[in-house]
Specification:
Strand order of the largest sheet: 3-2-1-4-5-7-6
Bound molecules: zinc ion
Shape: globular
Helix content: 25-40%
Largest sheet: 7 strands, mixed
Oligomer: single chain
Distance between the termini: 40 Å
């Protein structure tokens, strides 16, 4: 079996600027603090957002990545709210996978209220496969990530992986706060998010509940579709009783 070459530890892909901070900000900050190479890839620029234009959101996204300690953030500039599961989109993402050669890819969970999130999940998976095809019409060498995990967004989906982000939770909140055009004041009810739900309260509650399962302060939830393999069951964190 030939060893695959990975230039990037983690490539995190999302439909919109601010998605990655809300869903995976803790893990991305944790990776960055460990000195791992992290790339954030947003598919759209946010031009359809009801508040703030694409330029302002670009500045906010850059500030948020900096707050997480992530130095590489790219944007595909695909049409916001009209994300399509077509060949052009798949090829654009696949090219980024070849460019960065990630070991881990983070995608949104496939069950979503917002069509862009669902499409990002589906086309993102297909791009991971397509990037590895020898004869794909892409630049560079074929590449596939070793692992894909799916971030839990806003639905009541039960994760099967919980990552302790206690030491990076406040960094995650600070990154979300960079989106002043979207979430102007903490505790005021950010209706652009989920009607009537304040994003900061939501993130804190969700990550705190998940943290309780690991007996830590905060955790982020993910799903991996394949079986979870370990060298020894005692490698598994968490408590049965
Ligand atoms: Zn979104």
């Amino acid at each position: 079996m030939s060893a695959r070459k990975f230039d990037t530890d983690c490539l995190a892909i999302a439909a919109h600027r601010d998605d990655l901070e809300i869903t995976s900000g803790g893990l991305l900050a944790k990776f960055a603090a460990m000195g791992k190479r992290v790339v954030m890839l947003d598919l759209t620029a946010g031009e359809m957002g009801s508040q703030g234009d694409a330029t302002l959101r670009e500045e906010e996204a850059a500030a948020a990545a900096k707050a997480l300690g992530v130095t590489v953030r790219e944007n595909l500039g695909l049409p916001d709210a009209y994300l399509s599961h077509d060949h052009q989109t798949r090829a654009a993402i696949a090219q980024k996978i070849r460019d960065h050669k990630p070991e881990l890819v983070i995608l949104p969970h496939w069950e979503q209220r917002h069509p862009d999130h669902r499409i990002c999940s589906e086309v993102g998976y297909d791009a991971c496969f397509y990037a590895g095809l020898k004869h794909a019409k892409l630049e560079g060498e074929p590449h596939r990530p070793r692992k894909i995990i799916y971030a839990i967004y806003y639905g009541l989906v039960e994760p099967n992986i919980a990552v302790d982000i206690s030491n990076h939770f406040e960094q995650k909140i600070a990154a979300i706060k960079c989106y002043k055009s979207q979430f102007p004041v903490e505790g005021r009810g950010n209706k652009v998010f989920v009607p009537g739900i304040d994003v900061f309260e939501f993130v804190r509650a969700r990550d705190s509940v998940l943290g309780m399962k690991l007996r830590v302060d905060y955790a982020e939830g993910y799903i991996q579709k394949e079986i979870i393999g370990v060298d020894h069951p005692l490698d598994l964190k968490g408590f049965s009783i």
